[in-house]
Amino acid sequence: MLASIWMQHAQRVMTEIESTQMENIKKAAAVMADSIAADRWVHTFGCGHATLPIEEMYPRIGGFVGFHPMIELPLSFFTHIVGEMGVHQFVFLERVEGYGDQIMKSYTFDPKDTMWLFSHSGINNVNIDIALEAKKLGMKVIVLGSAKAFADKATRHSSGKKIFEIADIVVDTCVPAEDAVVPLKNHQDKIAPISTIAFVSAVWMIITTVAELLVERGEKLYIHPSHNVPGDTTARERLSAALSEYKRRIAGV
């Protein structure tokens, strides 16, 4: 069954991330833990479906305060498909050099912050703009993407660099360049991508390591609890406490 083919590829990717990327996962987590412990932020950014891991991590049940999502609607909103904010516009916009610089102007950053970027290919201009500006501002840059698969591919940016070459730390998602992995009879293109499952797997491996490091330092985490469990009478209070902590930190950002 084709379903089993997809599952085999997804399992392979998760196993490969665990067996080859743990050292960089630990390094990335240490940088992020330093930012959060300093009362600062891990900013998160991606384009297209690379926004999905950002939405997965925060705000999310089991997530905790310290991660600041930066999502641009024209670079993430696909449900129209055609017409207003359609796929054609997105494909154009993510390749516009200088757009990322304008996005960065809308926020206030600190050298103690971390910029966490998601890009499967690492070759498109908006992500590279943001990585370069983050480095210029003194932030550490962490990138998740398919670095090995795109090692021989050319960037679209005038800097001549892919995002993986700008990053301080890269966690390779171990996904093939074409992303989709299931061949279909009588069709040129495969179906069923695995980059999202790889992104999300790596995200929680990193975040759980961040949490481990912070707890070992004696830091209090403001965790989003499930508010759907009958009988948990303090869940709303704990959620309010997490949101209050986020509001306190976000002041000025």
Biggest pleated-sheet summary: 5 strands, parallel
Poorly predicted regions = none
For the record, the CATH architecture stands as: 3-Layer(aba) Sandwich
Distance between the termini: 49 Å
Number of discrete domains = 1
Shape: globular
Mean pLDDT level: 95
Broad structural category: alpha/beta
SSE order in H/E notation? HHEHEHHEHEHEEEHH
Number of discrete helical segments = 9
Percent of residues in helical segments? 40-55%
CATH superfamily: Glucose-6-phosphate isomerase like protein, domain 1
What does this structure look like?
The protein has 253 residues and is an alpha/beta fold. It is built from 9 helices and 7 strands. It has one domain: Rossmann fold. The protein has helices at 2-20, 22-37, 52-57, 87-93, 99-104, 125-136, 163-166, 195-216, 235-250; strands at residues 42-46, 67-70, 114-118, 140-145, 169-172, 180-182, 191-193. The strands form 2 sheets. The chain has a 5-stranded parallel sheet with strand order 2-1-3-4-5. It has a two-stranded antiparallel ribbon with strand order 6-7. Strand 3, helix 6 and strand 4 (140-145) form a beta-alpha-beta unit. It starts with a helix and ends with a helix. 37% of the residues are buried.
List the helices and strands and how they pair.
Blueprint: H1 2-20, H2 22-37, E1 42-46, H3 52-57, E2 67-70, H4 87-93, H5 99-104, E3 114-118, H6 125-136, E4 140-145, H7 163-166, E5 169-172, E6 180-182, E7 191-193, H8 195-216, H9 235-250
Parallel strand pairs: 1-2, 1-3, 3-4, 4-5
Antiparallel strand pairs: 6-7
